[in-house]
Amino acid sequence: MDFNDLKAFVASRDNFEIRVIGHAGSHVYQVELEDVEGGRHMLTRSGKPVLFRNLEDVYLELKRAGIHRAYLVQQVPHDEVIGREAHYQDPLTSRMPLVF
To answer: Would you state the CATH architecture of domain 3-99?
Structure first.
């Protein structure tokens, strides 16, 4: 989902969740949208995932798209090492709400 698709999606719907996924140790962030049907969409540019170097850049882009709330989730290295798929929404207490 590119930036224009994100803006259109936000303008037409209100039941979705935005996750800012931080990758441990690398200080790189990705943005993921999950819709009410459970579909997950990574933010892309020219068909490739957008990587942000800091949260300020994430805030600016999300604000431009009309988004004012998101959740910061941290990818857990232990899950990667043992080959387990990342569970960004479980448990709910592991997510930090962001309001900007």
So the answer is: 3-Layer(aba) Sandwich (3.40)
